[in-house]
């Protein structure tokens, strides 16, 4: 049971760090949001890969931010 508790402790600490990691990617998130919003505006057509460049920038930012956080905790 102790090992299970340790695993959940690590998971919780990583989840607590998640909002900070997301905050580091504000510009990328905003750019992706603008692209999706423009695509879904009246007359716009959202289709697959329309905002792929913005999404990839956001995904890369999230991955880089996650790597900066130590695996053991915040």
UniProtKB/TrEMBL annotation:
Q: Which InterPro entries match?
A: NDUFAF8 (IPR034595)
**Residues that span the membrane, as ranges:** none
Q: Name one GO cellular component term.
A: mitochondrial matrix
What biological processes does GO assign it?
mitochondrial respiratory chain complex I assembly
**PROSITE patterns noted in UniProt:** CHCH
Which protein is depicted? NADH:ubiquinone oxidoreductase complex assembly factor 8
